[in-house]
Write a structure and sequence with these properties.
Layout (H helix, E strand, L loop, with lengths): L1 H30 L15 H13 L3 E7 L19 E2 L4 E8 L5 E4 L1 H10 L2 E5 L5 E10 L4 E6 L22 E6 L7 E15 L5 E8 L11 E3 L5 E8 L10 E5 H14 L5 E2 L2 E3 L2 H6 L5 E6 L4 H4 L15 E5 L2 E2 L3 H11 L4 E8 L2 E8 L1 E2 L6
Antiparallel strand pairs: 1-3, 1-5, 2-3, 3-4, 4-7, 5-6, 6-7, 8-9, 8-11, 9-10, 10-13, 11-12, 12-13, 14-21, 15-16, 16-17, 17-18, 17-19, 19-20
């Protein structure tokens, strides 16, 4: 009896072992999908997905890829295409690339000034690739380095893409959806999504100015996105993507866009005049770091331009012979001025040919000075 039990137990164990070893082969024989599988019904897209799909379909034809060649270099044609290249600066070719979008039916394209700057200063060339794949030559109509904006004029186009709808940045809320379309790393028409992360940021630009009211977003913005549109959920333009903050140079979830209300004011001036009229009072400000070391809280008037509104109002700069500080601007239009960007924001908010009420400290006493703004595009403020 015990021998029989042992034989049965061994048989069962052996059978289980064979079944265990053979299981993968049995399953493969019985259930292998060796013909195309049937497609499962998906159902409708969610409302949010439909909105995003429709937004991209509507806006993307207006977005273009900008190529700015610093100088005519025939050898650049012999270099291999870099489809996954360096983004805005493709090393070796001297080509700056970025994004732009169609502004009007006349074929004006808005982009960042830093995308086309090398070409405009170096006598180079600019071309634009449309969403259709057509490559068109373009010329610079005007640039505004203080706002990092530029306007291009497209050459002859078979079919002009539609202009983007323009929104407003005045009523934006932190947390609302934001959508960026651009050409990061040379990858055409890439959509990234996120939210507006913050408002009223400040961004240094050229000519010693800071742009105030800048939009911060976590929608991925990478090299090559510069000059592209930032859109709201209605597909309206709310900003122009211009910079990222990232130690690695790639998106870290902190991108910045020029607010559309600034764009809508600057671009028409560029189209009409080739430059933007910058409201100012006609001063050159002292270095902020130096003022801070001297314990000065405000904008030191380094020099007053002859014939400027500041000169007419009697403002005084630093004495060039003795180095004695003259006027320090500590307030503008009822708000404190701690740095140049505070004063710039107040002057730009006032606009051209409008009065600005300044609080000016001189010799330990503070007085109110009324100054009318004027076009001082060739000065810092």
């Amino acid at each position: 009896m015990p021998d029989r039990f042992v034989r049965v137990a061994l048989g069962v164990t052996l059978g289980l072992l064979i079944a265990f070893v053979a299981q993968p082969y049995i399953l493969a024989f019985l259930y292998s999908a060796n013909v195309p599988r049937s497609v499962a019904a998906r159902g409708d897209l969610s409302a949010a997905e439909k909105t995003t799909v429709d937004l991209f379909a509507s806006a993307s034809p207006s977005v273009v890829h900008v190529f700015a060649q610093a100088a005519a270099q025939g050898r650049a044609l012999m270099e291999p295409d870099d489809e996954f290249g360096q983004g805005e600066q493709q090393q070796g070719s001297g080509t700056q690339t970025g994004t732009g979008f169609v502004w009007d039916a006349a074929g004006h394209v808005v982009t960042n000034n830093h995308v086309v700057e090398a070409a405009t200063k170096g006598g180079g060339s600019i071309s634009v690739r449309l969403a259709s794949g057509e490559v068109i030559g373009a010329r610079v109509v005007g640039t505004a380095p203080s706002y990092d904006l530029a306007v291009l004029q497209l050459g002859r186009v078979a079919k002009m893409p539609p202009p983007l709808a323009v929104g407003t940045s005045a009523d934006l809320k932190v947390g609302q959806s934001a959508f960026a379309i651009g050409n990061p790393f040379g990858l055409d028409h890439t959509l990234t999504t996120g939210v507006i992360s913050a408002l009223q940021r400040r961004l240094p630009t050229q000519e010693g100015r800071e742009l105030s009211g800048v939009i911060q977003t976590d929608a991925a913005i990478n090299p090559g996105n510069s000059g592209g549109p930032l859109l709201d959920s209605a597909g309206r333009l709310i900003g122009v993507n211009t910079a990222i903050f990232s130690p690695s140079g790639a998106s870290a979830g902190i991108g910045f866009a020029v607010p559309v209300d600034v764009v809508n004011r600057v671009v028409p001036d560029l189209i009409k005049n080739g430059r933007v009229r910058n409201p100012g009072i006609g001063i050159i400000a002292g270095q902020e770091a130096t003022a801070a070391r001297l314990g000065i809280d405000g904008v030191v008037v380094l020099r007053v331009l002859p014939g400027s509104p500041a000169a007419q109002a009697g403002l005084r700069g630093v004495d060039p012979r003795t180095g004695t500080i003259g006027d320090v601007i500590v307030g503008a239009n009822g708000r404190p001025v701690h740095r140049l960007s505070d004063l710039t924001a107040a002057v730009e908010e006032a606009g051209l040919d409008r009065p600005v009420s300044l609080l000016v400290e001189r010799d330990g006493r503070v007085r109110t000075v009324r100054v009318n703004t004027a076009d001082v595009a060739q000065t810092r403020l």
